[in-house]
Amino acid sequence: MIEKMKMVHIVTTVSHKDDMLLNLRDLGLVHLAERANASSQATQRFSELSKIASRLMEYAPDKKSPEAGNVDQAVLSDEAFQKMYTEVKDAFAKKESLAQDISSTKTEIERIQAWGDFDPQDVKALRESGIGLHFYRVGKRECQLIMQDDSIKAIRLASVDKSDTIAVIGKLPLDIPATEFQLPQKGLTELRQDVENYTKEAAHVEEVLKDAYKYENSFRDQMLKAQNAVDYSAADATVQGDEELVWISGYAPEVDLPAFKEAAAKNSWAYALEDVSEEDDQIPTKLRFNKV
Question: Which of 2, 54, 79, 252 has the maximal Cβ count within 10 Å?
């Protein structure tokens, strides 16, 4: 059945505002009539924790594996959790960075591998010494014209992807159709070594994240604390008052009024009760189930 509600108005002194909010939260009987937005800092903390915890779920071990029971049942202290949490966030950031590094390096390997393995620093050294060496892909007809032109210092190279290629000291004239090969920062050997190193780092990061899953209970504990902070922040922004008193209004189930009155007496709250209007569309619903 649906519990009947009463509107409660709670008043306390400004100096006891925080105590009132904390005790109301712990009491868990009063649903705020209005609710202001929580601080961005509180909501961001909860959102970030939720996202990281959700991403860690992909590292949950298979239920049949020996690691399935390797969950730390103890809850880390706030300080210990923050240290572990920072390491996990850094690991996720590193994972994304390494994935981009591996992808871009493999793309660069695909771009230059047809030109063979060479050290780009050798070409740069020649350029610094005054020999501006540049490489081009050209059509067959253009290649023939270039090789016949005494004003162009060019050397014909092995074809690349069935295209004629040349090395030119200086730049080709702009009226000759050609595609210049952009010199890479690293050669094939160094790039392939980079991919191997990135892959090893990525494997280490994966192990860090797999190990972090065992702190599932600690994540749940911190998410609960963060949600409480969001609720507190919203309630704090909802409170009204003046220089001496603060007050807040909400709904409480009639059946729970004795517990509320006991808490009010214990904490020296002034309060007033009133019936809820049938036209009030903000009334929360609380169900009470019978034994069946």
Answer: 252
Residue 173 near residue 166, CB atoms below 8 Å: no
- Closest by alpha carbon to 24, among 247, 224, 178, 284? 247
The torsion defined by the Cα of 81, 83, 89 and 90, in degrees rounded to 10, comes to -160
User: Over the stretch 199-209, which tens digit does the pLDDT of each residue have?
Assistant: 999 999 999 99
Provide the whole-model pTM. Answer: 0.70
pLDDT digit string (tens) for 178-195? 999 999 999 999 999 999
What six digits make up the tokens of 217?
């209970």
Sign of torsion, CA 269 274 276 279? negative
162 dihedral zone (left: phi>0; alpha: psi -120 to 50; beta)? left
109-127 CB burial, b ≥16 within 10 A, e <16: beebeebeeeeeeebeeee
Residue 256: which residues within 8 A CB-CB, separation 6 or more?
29
